[in-house]
Amino acid sequence: MQRFVALLQAFLCGYVLIQASAKLLEPPKLQPLTFPRNPALNKKVVVSCVAVEGDAPLEFTWTKDGTSGHYAAKRYSTSALSSHISTLTILQLTAQDNGNYTCHVSNAAGTDSSTASLLVQGQFCLLHEKPSSEVCPCIYALKE
Prior knowledge:
By secondary structure, the chain is mainly beta.
C-alpha cells in the first residue's frame, strides 16, 4: 500500500517513473565491396553491399567517383535484398562505367562506407575523336 501511495504522489507531482532497460544502437559495419573479375563490355554486373553489423533501420546509398547523380541512367538500379543488403546493378557495361563505386550505410548510431573500382574489359581502340554514342564497341583512347 505504501508503494501505491508513493507512486500516486510521484504521478500527481508530475514525475513519471519508467522501468526499462536501455539498449544502445550498434553502428553499421560493411564487408569490403568487390566487383566481379574482368567485367566485359555490354554485359551486366551486380555488386552487393552487406552490412555485417548494425541495428536496423539501415539506410543505403551509392555513389560513383564521389557523386550520386550517375544513377539516373536507366542502365543503373539499386535494390534492397534485406535490411542489411543493398545491390547495385549496371546493365550493358561501357567504358564510361569505369570508376570508383562506394556503398554508404547509416543508422542513428553511425555510418560506414566501402569503395571498389570497376574496370570494364574489352577491345581497346585508338580513335581521332570521342565517339558520339555512349554505347561504343570498344574502349577508346583519343589520339593526339
